[in-house]
């Protein structure tokens, strides 16, 4: 068994923490895990892509193009940019929130969220759009977007471990003072895709 997950977004969205939570949850289940992270030049709002591979046998940390089972997109444009990693029939969970790059703010490029969603719908049969940042705000802070996305992923029942286990690991890795908000965010994510 092997499961390859790409998490893509921009700096400040909790991408790296999400990948570590997934890795820890898989290791608790006795699975071999490899991870890698590519962090953009900008500290905030630069591209961040994490790769989490779990399963049996030997494998490296980098997911070859066209082999990811799941693309977890924290930001719309970065999700489109991560599509080459996805295998045919793979699942895409995308946060519909947009973060306009500086080039758009300066009028040097365009960003059309509707066009990006349409493109994702054409390219990925298993597309699951989630208003993750809005749900994180509902939970108490937009910084909990990563927990909404993990909750949505857990709600799809595509992981080799129970959603409850992923939630437990997430709460163990989050500071005590932030657990209530993040727990609510996780559960809102599950509910957004019809999970528990």
From TrEMBL:
List, alphabetically, the Pfam families matched. Answer: POR
Q: Residues in domain Pyruvate/ketoisovalerate oxidoreductase catalytic? A: 11-189
Q: Which domain of life does this protein belong to?
A: Bacteria
Keyword Metal-binding: yes or no? no
> What Gene Ontology molecular function terms does this protein carry?
indolepyruvate ferredoxin oxidoreductase activity
List the InterPro entries hit by this protein, alphabetically. Answer: IorB_Oxidoreductase, Pyrv/ketoisovalerate_OxRed_cat, Pyrv_flavodox_OxRed_cen
Enzyme nomenclature, EC number: 1.2.7.8
Q: Which UniProt keywords apply?
A: Oxidoreductase, Pyruvate
Is Glycoprotein found in the keyword set?
Answer: no
Q: What is this protein called?
A: Indolepyruvate ferredoxin oxidoreductase
């Amino acid at each position: 068994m092997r499961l390859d997950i790409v998490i893509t977004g921009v700096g400040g969205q909790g991408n790296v923490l999400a990948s570590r939570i997934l890795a820890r949850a898989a290791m608790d289940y006795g699975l071999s895990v490899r991870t890698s992270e590519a962090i953009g030049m900008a500290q905030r709002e630069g591209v961040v892509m994490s790769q989490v591979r779990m399963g049996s046998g030997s494998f490296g940390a980098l997911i070859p193009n066209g082999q990811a089972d799941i693309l977890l997109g924290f930001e719309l444009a970065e999700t489109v940019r991560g599509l080459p990693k996805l295998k045919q029939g793979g699942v895409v969970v995308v946060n519909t929130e947009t973060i306009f790059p500086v080039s758009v703010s300066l009028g040097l490029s365009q960003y059309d969220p509707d066009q990006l969603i349409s493109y994702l719908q054409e390219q990925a049969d298993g597309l699951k759009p989630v208003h993750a940042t809005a749900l994180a705000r509902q939970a108490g802070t937009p910084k909990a977007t990563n927990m909404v996305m993990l909750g949505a992923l857990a709600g799809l029942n595509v992981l080799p471990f129970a959603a409850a286990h992923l939630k437990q690991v997430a709460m163990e890795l989050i500071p005590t003072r932030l657990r209530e908000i993040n727990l609510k965010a996780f559960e809102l994510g599950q509910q957004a895709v019809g999970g528990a």
